[in-house]
Amino acid sequence: MKHFKTLLLVAIFTIGLGSVASAQKIAHINTDKLLAEMPATKSMKAQLEKLNKTYRDDIEAMYKKLQAKMQKYEAEGKSQTQEVNQKRAIEVQKDRQLIGQAEQTAGQEMQKKYQEKTLPILKKAEDAIKAVAAEKGIIYVLDAAPGKGLIVYDKGENIYNAVKTKLGF
Fold it and tell me: CA 34, 154, 118: angle at the middle one, nearest 5?
């Protein structure tokens, strides 16, 4: 009899939780699509491409200068002493290292700029999603972007267009 009461209590508790869970509104949004279509993201990409081109142009100029120096040293190599040729080889090696460092620094700077510019965009999108969820009385918003863990989202409310409107695009 004692086990029956416990079992009955567990059943009632489980049914009660089921009705509470079903009363909660759940929605979904494809954040990858939202972020890709935001004007701020498009502007950020254009700025980063311009900065990346500047870095590439600088590195290409360094590389062309190195190639010219190497051709000059090769042409003059037979007429120079071994000591001069060794100094020139060390100089060429240092120039190659400088180019490698410039490439590494450019990559790090691009990553840093990307992160700096991405954070405000992510915050703006998150704030808009939260605002739309609050307006619609939604308790859970799941990310429907591929690979984000949400597989079935046919029956939930898609708040993509509402968030897009909230962001003004």
Answer: 15
User: Other CB atoms closer than 10 Å to residue 148's CB: what's the count?
Assistant: 13
Find out whether 122 and 130 touch, Cβ atoms under 8 Å: no
Measured torsion, CA atoms of residues 148, 153, 158, 164, in degrees rounded to the nearest 10: 20
Helix locations, the chain, DSSP H: 2-23, 31-37, 39-76, 82-136, 160-167
The string of pLDDT tens digits covering residues 118-130 is 999 999 999 999 9
Phi, psi dihedrals of residue 156, rounded to the nearest 5°: -75, 165
Confidence of residue 17 (pLDDT cuts 50, 70, 90): very low
Per-residue tokens: 71: 């051709």
How confident is the model over 83-114, as pLDDT tens digits? 999 999 999 999 999 999 999 999 999 999 99
Of 61, 123, 66, 128, nearest to 94 by C-alpha is 66
* Both structure tokens of 127: 């704030």
